[in-house]
Each structure stands twice: as C-alpha cells, then as structure tokens.
Amino acid sequence: MENLINLTDINVVYLKLILNSGLAFLIVTLIKWIIKKILDRLHDEKIAYKIYSIVRIVGNIILVIALTVLWWDYVRHIITLISFLSAAFAIAIRDIILNWFCGVYIKIHRPFKVEDRIEINGIKGDVIEISLLGFDVLEVSNKDEFGQSTGVIVNFPNSSVFSGPIKNLSKSFKYVWNEIDVEVDLDSDINLAKKTLYKIVNEIDVIKSIPRKMKNQISEVNTSYRIYYNTYNPIIYTKIDGPRIVLSIRYLIHPKKARYIMSTISNKIYEANKKGEIVLYKGSE
Predict the structure, then answer these.
(1) Model confidence, pTM
(2) 8 pLDDT higher than 60
(3) Fold of 111-168
(4) HSE-CB of 192 using CA atoms within 13 angstroms
(5) Nearest alpha-carbon partner for 127 in 53, 69, 200
(6) DSSP of 29-68, one letter per residue?
(7) Which residues pair with 92 in a beta bridge?
(8) Is 185 in contact with 281 (CB distance < 8 Å)?
(9) pLDDT in tens, 61-71
(10) Best CA proximity match to 112, nearest among 165, 179, 176, 35
(11) Which string of DSSP letters, residue by residue, matches the chain?
C-alpha cells in the first residue's frame, strides 16, 4: 500500500475512497449481470425486459447513494465553491438537464411506451427503449401507412417530445382503421362484388376478432378521451369514379399486422377475380 501511495503520490484516505468506490461499482455491476443472466432464462421476454429495467434503475440509485455516503465528508467542504460554479455548470450541461426532465415527463405523462408505434420528426417506428436521457426507435419504412421494419435503430434525445407533434398509433387502444380500394367495372354487379369482399374480409380471423376488443378498449378510455364509432365491423363504401366504381373496404387492424393483412386480402381478391366472383376494373382499352 505504501509503495502504491509513493508511486501515485495520492493521500491514503483518498486512495481508500477510490478503491471503495470502485468496489461499490463492481458489486452493483456484478449483481445486475447475475440478475440479467437469470432473467435471460425466462420464456417471457416482456416480463424479463421490464424487471431488468427496474433492476438497472434501482442499481444506479444504490450506487449513487453509496458513492455519496463514501465521499460526503469530503464533498461537503466544496459545496460553497460548487454554488459559485453551478450557474456555469448548468449552462454547460443544459441539454443533459433538459433531456433528464423530459425523461421524467415521458415516464409520468407516458405519451408513448415501449412497443408503441410512433411517428416523430418525420421518422416512424416502434419504441424499443426509453431512458432518462433518450429513447430508441426501430425504424419502419415510410413507403406506405404501415411500413415494414428497416432494421435501423434511431436514437432521439428526450427533448424531442417538445420539438413537434408525436403521432402514436398504439396509445390507449391497439387498433387503427385501414382501407383498401378495389376498382370494378361500372357495369359490374355491385351487390355481388360487395358480398364477395365482405366474405373475404370476414373470413380473416385476425379482423373478425378485433371489433369486440376495440369496443372494450374504447370503453376503458372514455373517461379520458371523447372517442366513439358508429360501427366497429368491416364496412364497404361505394364511389363512382368515371368509368369505374371504387369499393373502399374499411376495417380495424393492429398497425404491425396491417401490411400482412393487406397482402392476404389482395391475394384473396385476385383469386376471386380469376374465379369470376368479382370483375376488377382493367382500364380503358
């Protein structure tokens, strides 16, 4: 120990404080690592993620308290000096402070949560992580309303929540309205075409089970939001557009399943067209 003190020219008291601080950091890190290894064995990844998020926060709080206790007798003597430097320090780290308070705002107000699909600053994606300084979004393509994941992770500072509007496709209830336009000839049998389209949509189990769930979710948020719909079941609207008729299929769907369901419906419409059950508009010849 004396050789180490002589070599580094550090007072023995401060050397002990540094070693104890390092030991505290090592212990907390080791405990978090052990808990993470245990949680990795859980089959439910959502529960494991939530538990480990709490463990990280608690571990960091314990570490801060431990370091404060260790260094308090020496830190308190420079509080007066810190008070003079606090203004300059606050200016230097104003972005960190702002992001921290915005992080608290996100935790309390919850404009979005992990797994929500949001659109912010022109970027759409699924929230995969929220910390006290920023949040990460797994980007989805903007080619259409319900794009597929691009695999790109975008990091936003928490202050982004006040830089513009946030579009949340998952808040309060999980489902959104989607529409598919089907064009048929002007002289088509509209009743038969609609009957065929209703049959196609209502045979899809994912769509069939949503109206009941949506009613329950809207009932739960009626005290917070004034939201209501006349119908929750798929509906088809008719519009004459020149030499064709546009049949708009409107139905509820989970945003993350929308593209798959659109593909399924399109394939079924294509098969119905081949069988003569519906006559699709082919354009002017």
Answers:
(1) 0.55
(2) no
(3) SH3 type barrels. (2.30.30)
(4) 12
(5) 53
(6) HHHHHHHHHHHTT-S-HHHHHHHHHHHHHHHHHHHHHHHH
(7) none
(8) yes
(9) 888 888 778 77
(10) 165
(11) -HHHHHHHT--HHHHHHHHHHHHHHHHHHHHHHHHHHHHTT-S-HHHHHHHHHHHHHHHHHHHHHHHHHHHHHHHGGGHHHHHHHHHHHHHHTHHHHHHHHHHHHHHHH-S--TT-EEEETTEEEEEEEE-SSEEEEEEE--SSTTPPEEEEEEEEEGGGGGSS-EEESSSSSS-EEEEEEEEEETTS-HHHHHHHHHHHHHT-HHHHTHHHHHHHHHHHHTTT-----S--S-EEEEEEETTEEEEEEEEEE-GGGHHHHHHHHHHHHHHHHHTTSS-B-----
Tokens encoding 3: 């050789």
- Where exactly are the structural domains of the chain? 2-92, 111-168, 176-274
pLDDT at 38: 83
Closest to 204 in 3D by CA, of 248, 264, 259:
264
- Architecture in CATH for domain 176-274: 2-Layer Sandwich (3.30)
Confidence of residue 4 (pLDDT cuts 50, 70, 90): very low
Q: Residue 232 — very low, low, confident or very high, per pLDDT cuts 50/70/90? A: confident
Structure confidence at residue 220 (pLDDT): 60
Say which amino acid occupies 163: S
Strands 117-120 and 123-130 come out as antiparallel
Contact (CB, 8 A) for 153 and 139: yes
